[in-house]
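Continuing from the previous page of notes. For each protein in this section, the sequence appears first, followed by its structure tokens. Read the first protein now.
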Amino acid sequence: MQSMWFFDDVNLFKVLCPHKFKAYKKDHDFDAYKKKDYIYFEDDSANKVYLIEKGKVKIGYYTDTGDEVVKAILSKGELFGEKAILGDNKRDEFAQSIDNKTSICPIGVSTMHDLMRDNQTFSFKVYKFIGFKFKKLERRLQLLLFKDTKTRLVEFLDELCSDYGYDCQKIGDHVIKHPYTQKDMASLIGTSRSTLNILLNELKEENYLNFNRKEIRILKKIA
């Protein structure tokens, strides 16, 4: 299994959380959130970054007409709010818990800057992470703008395979064990849950995949 959120097999949470540093451990606490609780809103002050200890967080924004646009669904070990590190003073997105037992590790921007200044390798990992995240977001926005819904789904499945998949050696399928619900996936490709289900079943009938709640299996092509 390989994920863009991990560098050199090191979970970002294990590297960044202040609990790992004696100088910051004493005054550091985790924040607990339930489903639909907001961690921050658009236009809030950007003075912290956040790591997910457990649970899931939705990142998105609202259009002028009030429609919600989901940019990412994040899970354990992932970082968000990172634009604060780059100097943004206000949020241009919201972050919302979509799990009833979400636990967040908040890190003040000044603390993060201290850690980055004192450790060049640590700093490199953070900037590399931010670069990969922006690249992934840009690719997803291009899909939403220029591809039809079925193509968006297939390319999103390819992305999931890269992030969460592995080869099943016995039969040669690509097995994807991912953290998303169908509602999450529908939001990320800009469609409804019912349309997503229709398309998944179409791909199943075409012998492209099999799926259940726990995994998606991209089937090996027989020549």
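Done with the first. The second protein uses the same format. Note its length before scrolling.
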Amino acid sequence: MSPIVHFVRHAQGVHNLSHANHHLLDPELTPLGEEQARALGVGFPALENIQLILSSPLRRTIQTALLAFSSQVGAGLQVIAWPEVQEASDLNCDTGSDLLDIKAEFEKLPVDFTLVEPGWHIKQGKWAPAAGRLLERAQLARQWLSQRPEKEIVVVSHGCFLHFLTDDWVNADNLHVTDWANAEVRSFAFVHEDGRPVLCETIESRERRGLGPVALTKEQRLELQRMKLQTWIKWGVILA
């Protein structure tokens, strides 16, 4: 049986303060972001059921995971750095650090970098900020998650890539290029369409967001995805 996956957008990073900060490479959390991450851990749904914590290997996502899930980490879990859920664009703020550097920074903390390969931070090949590559990366991530043996998993990722990962494109073309708030959590279960694992937001998660129980159809999702990707390409967020 496939797991329930709780997706989390990182807490506020320094780059979230202004567009001028987007030139910063792999920025950290702000003091407010640290508070948001700790508050997330207090109010997180079904916290006691988490069996696996995955995080993008960028600083702000790892920091969010360590602060939000400190009780689970203290009880023996590690934060597993997973490059498949790194951010979509190739802006400096969305680009990670060299593997040796980021490992050295967190070497005294319970973060496992086994899944991170050298060059993961270079936005080329499978990591390129192009629509086709991002859709493929998201599909591979869903496939991997759907086959995990754990009952409940946390994935800490980024606002733009979470639209690719969950295939929920509602309000993705706003000023912030995402409708995920900092330190927001949404919970999903797997269903299968045409033999592929597809994420469906749980009724409880939709209710927490003030939404009704009925989600979009497959056709509606595909059309919305097409429209939002065209907008992001036009804006220069990603490449065609």
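What the second structure shows: The chain has a mean pLDDT of 95. The CA atoms of residues 42 and 68 lie 8 Å apart. We return to this in next week's lecture.
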